[in-house]
Structures are given as C-alpha cells and as structure tokens.
Amino acid sequence: MKYVIAGAGPAGVIAAETLRKADPKGTIVLIGDEPEAPYSRMAIPYVLSGGIGEDGTRLRKTPGHFKNLSIHVLRDRVAKVLPKKRQVILAGGAKTPFDRLLIATGSRPVKPPVPGLNLTGVHHCWTLADARNIAELAQPGADVVLMGAGFIGCIILESLLARGVNLTVIEMEDRMVPRMMNETAGNMLKSWCQKKGVAVKTKTRVTGVKKSNAGGLTVHLNKGRPVNAALIVVATGVKSNTGFLKGGSVRMQDGGVAVDDHLQSSIDGIYAAGDVACGPDFSGGWAVHAIQPTAAEHGRIAAINMAGGDARYQGSLIMNVLDTAGLISASFGNWPGVNGGDIAETVDKGHFRYTRLAFEDDRLIGALTLGLTEHVGVIRGLIQSRISLGPWKKKLIANPSSVMEAYVALSPAAA
Amino acid sequence: MQKSLVIYPDKCTGCLQCELACSYQAEGVFNPAKSRIKVFNFHDQGRFVPYTCTQCDEAWCLHACPVDAITVDMTNGAKVVSDDVCVGCKVCTIACPFGTVNYNQATGKVIKCDLCGGDPECVKACPTDAIAYMDADLTGLEKMRAWAAKTDAALQAGA
C-alpha cells in the first residue's frame, strides 16, 4: 500500500505516524514545500519573542524521527491530483502514484484588497521565513502596524510587544478577536491592550499603504491621522490551501475539502485533514476548524481509516486559547448560544475576569473565559461528554466560575 | 507497567497535606495554588474530593501539543511535560477534558501531575490513605476510561 500525504504540518505528520503504526510495511511519502524540517506555525510567535530558537518549532524533536519510521519526507508541492490515474503531479513535474492520498495542505494567509500591501516592509506572520523578515524589522522602538486583531493577530501582538516595538493595531470590527469573543470580552481585551501601551483602533479600516518620505511606510486609515510604520504585519484571516484541486472532481464545501465522518473526500481513497478539511462539527453541521486540536484529531482518524480501519469522527469542537500580553482568554463551542437556551455570565472589568456559559436544556454547549488558567479544559469535558448537568446547572448559573466543581461532582472520580 | 493514582474521596478529610507535599516536590514551596493535585470541597455535602491527572491513554494533552513537549514516561505511563520544550501555547490546557493541565503564568509553562517519577509525594503525605498508587489494572481506572471515552474524538468500530 502506498500512502501519499500532501502537507507536512501537524495533520500530515500525525497521519504519517499513525499510518506507520497501523501499517508497518506500507510506503509513506510526506510532502511539504518549505525548506525546514516539519514545524509548527503555532510556535512562531515564541521564536519572535525570543523564547525559543527556530529548532524549537519542530513538530518532532528526535533526530532521525521520520527516517526511523521509514517516512519519506519529500520537499516539493502537489500541483495537481489525478484521481482516476491514482497519481499526484508535483510542482517539480514528477508524477507520484498513490493508493491512498491525504490532503493536509493547511491554509494560507489572505491579503485584503488594499493598495500598497505589496510594498517592502509588509509581511504576513505565517512561515519561518516570514518570522525572519519580521524579526529584522521589529526592533526596539520601531513603529509597527498590525492589521487585524483576530486570533493570529493577537498571538503575534504578544511577541511584537516582547520585542519592544511601538505598536498600533487596526481592526475593522467593533472589538478584538471578533470571531472568538463577544462584545464584552473583546472590548475588555482591547482595554487591557491599551493599558499595556498598545494603540488599538477598532471599527477602523486601512485604506492604503504608501512609502513615506522618511523611507518607511505610511498607513492611511478611513478615519483619523495616518500612522507611520517601519513594518506592517498583515493578519487579516486565512483560507484553506485548495488551489491545486481547482477544476478537479474533489467536492468542496465552505472553502475546504468536503469530507465525511471518516474524513474521506467525495472520491474513494482520497482523504483530507486539518485546516483544509470541511469536516463534521461537534456543535452540528460541517465546518472548517483551523485549529491545532482538530488537525491532530483529523490526522489520526483519517490515517486509521486510510489503513483500512473503521474510525468514525464525532466532530471537532471549535476552541481557542489566547495569551494577549498576559491576559488569557479561551473560547469553546457554541458560545453565542441557541434560541431558548440559558446564558450565564459573570463580569469583573476591574480585574479583567469574565465567564460566559451557554446551555441547551441542561447541557453546556459553549463558553468564553477571560483570566482563567486553572482547570479550563473541563469546559471541553463538560461540552463534549454531553453530560446532563442536573442540579449543577442552577449552581453554574449562580456562579459560572464553578465549572471545575461541577465537573468533579459529576464525574466518576467523586463516586 | 502503567500505574495510576487511585483516589477514595470517602476517606478524604480535606487536610490538604497532598497539595502541600505536591507543591513542595514540584515547585519547592508549600503553596496549594501550585499543587498538581487539587482537593475540591463540596460544603453542602460535607465532602472532599481530591482530583488530579489520571495519565489517561487518550493523552489529549500529548496529542494536542504542537511542539512535542509532552512525552510518556515508559516506566509508569505518566505523561510528562518537558519545560525545555514547552513554549507555553496552552493548547493542552484546553484540549485536556479533565482540566488537569494548568498554565503557570510565573514560568510561562504548563504544569501537570508527573507521578513524581514513580514515587508520588501526595500518596506518602495522605494520613488517611485516601490516595493510593497502584497498577492501573487493579484500580478504578476503567471507570475513568469509560468517562474519557465519552469525550473521545473517534468511535472505533470492531476490534
């Protein structure tokens, strides 16, 4: 059996390792187009803040890890898939046959249609190459503009601050992390950042970037004065890497590869995992969840099925955890809630603490937290075990912070 | 051999000796806030429930880690965080459905029970034998596993 994996991020690497366990004799080819050993984009902010070196981003640290598992790591890119011929065409021109193919090509950052974003000094923060460019320009005291205060923008914000830059954040929406946090929490994050000396402009758009007379860049906004920048970091969203499938027969959904509950695409033998896959959503329906835990679960489950097993995926729970200059926030599942469902909230703006719980009947279906670092994972446990809260629902509405007590009381550990 | 901590809540008096012993072993201070084992106090029932990592087979924390900072101690099955490798991204803290991985803001790393290398201090500190350390097969680990399976991402058909 020959397995080809397109993409050497977490989904691809975990799939390769799982395949090796399930099929000791199969041929496994892991294709990635970046020059470095397989690494984690999630670790890049910690390279920028100086916490780790580039080697610290590697997905696997043991020397010879892939070789020891007879996983052939190929530096190339899949340019086209020929499903009927069971072949992929690589960017270098070579053709590679496969019996099972995993599409794990991840996502890439998008640039908004703003004039001037092609100028020198404008960078995404997505690859290690990007990180090197940013590190060169993000010197202490340098004027830096961050476009976009989404999840990725906020993670980078932390490391830019650690580098001692003079930072301005521009966000179109009315708050920070608008897809991860509601108005209350998103604005608490904003005031936290302002307290840390960051200029945060929400409900503001960049209308254009021009070279300034001083040799730097000038960022023009739809309101207020233009802002000077030695570096602009564009973090305005990502989309699935599916260009190489264009015009082919693999069915797409919501910008990703549509997969079933075994993570198989519309074509037999072709699977998808991670940021590129539109798979079962634990909260209902189908969705692209571009987060690390989903990539890891997809990679493992797709591989079990590719090797002939029968693993059905229960669906990914969207969840994020973020450290924004020392304020830790987390979001889980369907935090906006459902019609007729109860909501419990507790707000302490002075201490930057916030908890929101969303219920459906007597089950927890989503949550937001600010300032919580203890036992935060039980929120996932409570949601994903679909446990009936019984008398604990009332207690949680009275005190939303007591999620861990609820979990311990309801778990067999208390029996 | 996989070993695990077994907890008998009915024997717990809430003295918090386990939390003190744990924090001293792990952090060099007597500070329950830094303990990896936590005693929950259910006032209305007059009950105390000690709670910590079950070193579960699913190892959500280990699989969610983007930088391979959590590994299995082959001598006892403990899932151990390597401080040198952990970048402090906290993904494991939301991935663990038992809530037993916490972020330590003082160090910028995550912390969890590592079974003290096979000689758990909480067990030795407990005056009422409410915490025991024994072979996983002999313990109530199965019921925790059944609980964990409710959260499992994959339902596997067949063997």
Structure description:
The complex is a heterodimer of chains A (415) and B (159). Chain A is α/β, with parallel strands linked by helices and 415 residues long. Chain A has helices at 10-22, 44-48, 65-68, 128-137, 151-162, 183-195, 292-306, 378-384, 391-398, 403-410; strands spanning 2-6, 27-32, 71-75, 78-82, 87-90, 95-97, 100-103, 107-109, 122-124, 143-147, 166-170, 199-201, 206-211, 217-221, 227-229, 231-234, 238-240, 252-253, 256-258, 270-272, 277-280, 286-288, 311-313, 319-324, 327-333, 343-348, 353-360, 363-370. In chain A, β14 (217-221) and β15 form a beta hairpin. The model of chain A has no long low-confidence stretch (mean pLDDT 96). In chain B, the strands form 4 sheets. Chain B has a two-stranded antiparallel sheet. In chain B, strands 2-3 form a two-stranded antiparallel sheet. A two-stranded antiparallel ribbon of chain B has the order 4-5. Chain B starts with a strand and ends with a strand. In chain B, β6 and β7 (109-111) form a beta hairpin. The longest helix of chain B is centred in the N-terminal third of the chain and has 11 residues, at 17-27. The mean pLDDT of chain B is 88. Classes of the chains: A alpha/beta (415), B alpha+beta (159). Chains A and B meet through α7, β23, β24, β25 and α8 of A and β2, β3, α2, α3 and β6 of B.
